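Same chain as my last thread, 107 residues:
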Amino acid sequence: MLQQTIEKGIIKPEHIAPDVSNFSFYVDAFNELGTCRNSGFGVSPIPFTAIVEYSTLNEVEDFPSFLEVIRIMDREYIRQENIKSEAKKPKKKSEAPPASKSITKRK
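reply #2:
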C-alpha cells in the first residue's frame, strides 16, 4: 500500500521517515542524552561526561563505538538545528553598493 501511494505521487519518498528500529538503542540513548545539553546561545554538543555516565549505567559493552555513533548523530543534529536557526533569522537589507567613481580619460 505504501508503495502504491508513492507511485501515485501522494507521498514523496523523501517524506517517509527511515526505519531505525535496528538502531533503537542508539536513538533512545541519543534522545535521553539530548536532555544533558548545556543551555545558552545555540545548540551545544552532548557533554562527554554524560555519554560516559549513560554508557556506564546502561552497561554499554563497546564504548568507543557507542561514543562514535552518538557523536555522529550529535554533529548532524547540531548542523540541522543551525540550518533551522539561520533560516529563522531576518534577512539583512542589502546595503547599497558603494558609489562608483567615474573614470574619465584625459585627452
